[in-house]
Structure formats: structure tokens, C-alpha cells
Amino acid sequence: MRASVPRHYDVAVVGAGPVGAVAALAHARRGARVALCEANPSSARRLAGEWLHPPAIQVLRELGIDLPSEIPEHAAGQGFVVFPDDGSAPCLLPYGDGALAYSCRHQALVETLRLAAASHPGVEYRPGVRVRRIEGRSLHYTQNGSSGFLTADRIVGADGRGSIVRKSLGLSVARSISSRMVGLLLPDAELPFEGYGHVLLGGPGPVLCYRIAPRHVRLILDVPLHGPAGRERAAFLWDGYADVLPGTLRAPFRRVLAAGAFEGAANGVRGRRVYGHGDRFLVGDAVGYHHPLTAVGMALGFKDALCLAHCQSVAAYQARRRPASRVAELLAVGLYEALADSADEAVATRRAIYAMWRRRTAEGTRTMGYLACRDTRVVPFAWAFSRTIGRAVRGLGGAAWRSGQWGHAGRVAGALLGRLRWLVLGILSGRARGASRPTLLYRRETGPGVRTAPPSR
User: Fold this and answer.
1) DSSP SS3 for 209
2) Domains of the chain by range and CATH?
3) Least crowded by CB within 10 Å, which of 135, 173, 227, 382?
4) What's the predicted TM-score (pTM) here?
């Protein structure tokens, strides 16, 4: 700690994770004196964001941050490849235009960004400072058993889902858990499509895997809440997910499971609705968050941080970020619902999505543009979403004509049109309506095999 720096700052950033470090550096580069407070520096070792979409990398470049070469150049992320649950050929979704993603261990990313922020003369990095309460512009904290406080003209909450800054605004930090995430690091593993993030469907939940180092692949399993814990978990994971993995990953997967070398985290959803009030601002997960399958969290958070540094008020900040985040948020919620749900309307939607991706490579590139926050236009996204639902409904009509099951087709078509209504309401309201409790979350809380929608609220 630099004792010469006064206890009053232009900006105090609470939370020195990736988004907090970017927020501190973005403000400092505009001339602000910044306190970057982190309660638990060792939390960087946890299972968290490791895949950066191209716009997130562009934000870092604008701030003068060069990421270390954790992975070979040829393995830099070129997009996603989806392995359908029906066993059909994989669907390649490239970013296009030569854009590349980046993946590395979360700890390495956090350490790089913290170092970049702390190295700026305008930033004072204060590890071990745990903010206990916020009164006006004063942050009261404890550090190494002692109490203290600092003041700042602007307070930025980059402290994640349980944000104390969010709580100080009277906003809820409660969350509904939709599923659990289990992460494994597979040594000496090969991917069928090197340079792509792999989304594997057909198990109890979706699987995301990607190259994280020259000799390691990260495997993330979405595990339903009804899945077992303790000693039975390894057997459940093998029985449920081994068959959906590419053959090159199964032997490493078995070895890591046998060694018990896996870690977990909870998945939840909170819509991005409130960005702050007065002199207190929220960025990243403190605003809202979605399932990590789409890896959209850090791209949204980094863009929040950069945008905030250029805004003078909450109103200006929110007016810029709400429309810019809307498409990625809607797609993150809707795509997870479509790919992970077992209800009939989800199956119909998946088939329509696969057909759309296979029809033209440009469709996959367009999807990645929305997902990566490269394309934030609402009208083209809404039109693409509507065409997918329309294709699914037409598929149901053809199936009903052949089978004569018009009643079932009508019920499923009604559910599909309900998803379209959700999209329209989400666009009109400026947020993903119902994102705090999506249909799939209801089904997973009530157990497997439940195919009825939740009661209207």
C-alpha cells in the first residue's frame, strides 16, 4: 500500500476481478485517482470466466493490455462448434473477419489485469480490504483485523453476484440456482476442432470445452440440481457425459474423475436491469449475469467498465449500456433454454437452429456476432429469432400432417409462440423479461422429466 496516497479518491472500485481491474484502469487512464479494493485476492483461483470473445480483447487493447501467450497462436479461439444432441454432424460457428477469442486460466487472467491496473500511477491496489458498509461517499472496511474508511466521488461495484455496492442501493443479491457447473482440467487431450470452443449436447446438461494451454483442455459440465454429490458424483458424471464427449477426451476425462480433480460452482440468472444510482455504479455480474455456456459475461463486463469511464452519470451510462447489452442478454437466455431444455418446444427449436446454421455459414457467423457483443442491432436479431421459431412451427406442421397428431403439435406451437412473445416483451422493456426465473430453471428445480410450463406470475 502506498501510504503517500490520500484516503480520498476520485473513484473507488470494489472488487479486483477481471472487470474491476479493467474499470480501475479505464478510469485511471482518464486522469482519475482510483482505489482498487479486493477483499480476497486468492479468489482468483476459483472456477470462473476463461474465454474472452473478440470485443473483450479489443477493450483490453484499447487500455494497452497485452495478454500473455497462454495458448499457441493456431489454437486462438476462432468461434464455437456445436455437437447436436441428435448425433448429426457438428455445426461450425466462426467469428469471421479474422476475429479471434482468447482463453487462459482464470487466475492467470486476473493476475495479468491486476498487475496492469496496479502498475498505473493513478491506481492504488488495496488487497485484503473488505468493504463492510457504504454510507454516502464513505466506504467502511476491515483489513488485517483493523477497521478503516475511505471516501470517493464515485463508487463502482465490480464485486460480483453478491455485490455489497448493489446491496447498498437496496437491490436484491438473492439468486435462484438453475444448475451447477463442474470444471475439470484434462491433460494431454486433443480437440476435434482445435481453435474452437466446443459445445456438446445430449447429456444431462450441455458441456463446454476449449483449449486453455498447450497441453490442457478445460471441460465444463452443466449438472442439473438433482444430480448426486459426494462419492456418487464421479460415477454420475461418467455415466451421464462420457458418451457425448469426443473419443479423444474420454480417457483423460476418466482419469481426472478417478483422481477427484474437479471443482464446482453454482449457475444462476439475473437480468441486467439496474446499473446504479447517484454516485454508485454497477458493472459486470453486479449488474446481472447469465449461464456461462455462452461465455458472454466478461465481454459485457469489460464493455460496462470502459463505457462507465466515459459517462458522467448513471442515466448516461444506463442509456448506453442497456441497448448495447440487450441482444447478447436475450440470446444468452434463449440459447441456453433451447440447447439445454428437454421440453418438446425446445427440441423443435433446436432442430430449427441446427437447420439454420447448416443452411449457410453466414448464419453461424451472425449468431456468434450477436453472442460475442460484436453485433448489438435489435431488429436483425429479432428477425433471425422469429424466422427460427417460424421454421420450428412449420416443422411441427409437417410432422402433424404425417402423424395426424394435430393436438400435440398445436400445444407445442403455442409454447413456441410463447417464446416469441418473450422476445418481443424483452425487446420492448429493454431487458430479458423473465430472466430471473426462466422456464428451464423451473423445470430443473422441480426435477427431471417435467414438461409443463410454470404458472404465470
Assistant:
1) strand
2) 8-68+105-174+270-309 (3.50.50.60), 75-102+177-268 (3.30.9.100), 326-446 (no CATH)
3) 135
4) 0.88
